Amino acid sequence: MNLYEQAQLANRHKKSGKNKAVVKYMVRALIHAAQFKRMSAYFHQGNRLKLFEKQPNFVTKCITPYLRDGFTKDQRVDILINHYQWFEQVFTAQAQCAIYQDNVVLCELSIDEERYFVTLSFERNSRKEGELTLSLCDEQHNKYYVIAFTYIAGDFYIGCMQGGTNDNGFSRKFTKAFYGLRPKSFMVETM
């Protein structure tokens, strides 16, 4: 696939400004050719292709700010490649596909006869904060707490942690059911 085709594919979701986005993609790819080639070579194969379904511009992730401002472009490439090497060692191919396409339920919690789930997924919304997302949600997939993280050299780097916009008393109910453990603390401990 040539550069123009990659740019078209990466911006297929755009409704307006598509031509500008294609040109921008191509210019960035040419200016940052070394990083772009490493990203393309590693991520355009196997199960990793599923990354592009939710994040069509995935290979440009090393060119834009990611996790924090202090990383160089080469460091970002190394971080991304190392994270996915770890990911492929830890999870089976079937689990990888489930995480890329939807989510994997890690555990189920019952609180006042309602079911809640801790899930692991790859989310488009947290593309600058981390590669994987740990979520605490209900049966209707309403997310109460979300942590986006990346595995870096033996540690988990948490890029963001967000609570839901309206928890309708969930935090109080959760804290009472788990003997004073707050949902935010629970999510960090779950990591």
Automatic annotation (TrEMBL):
Transmembrane portions of the chain: none
One GO-annotated biological process of the protein: DNA damage response
Pfam families hit by this protein: DUF535
InterPro entries for this protein: DUF535 (IPR007488)
Protein name: DUF535 family protein
Record organism: Photobacterium damselae subsp. damselae
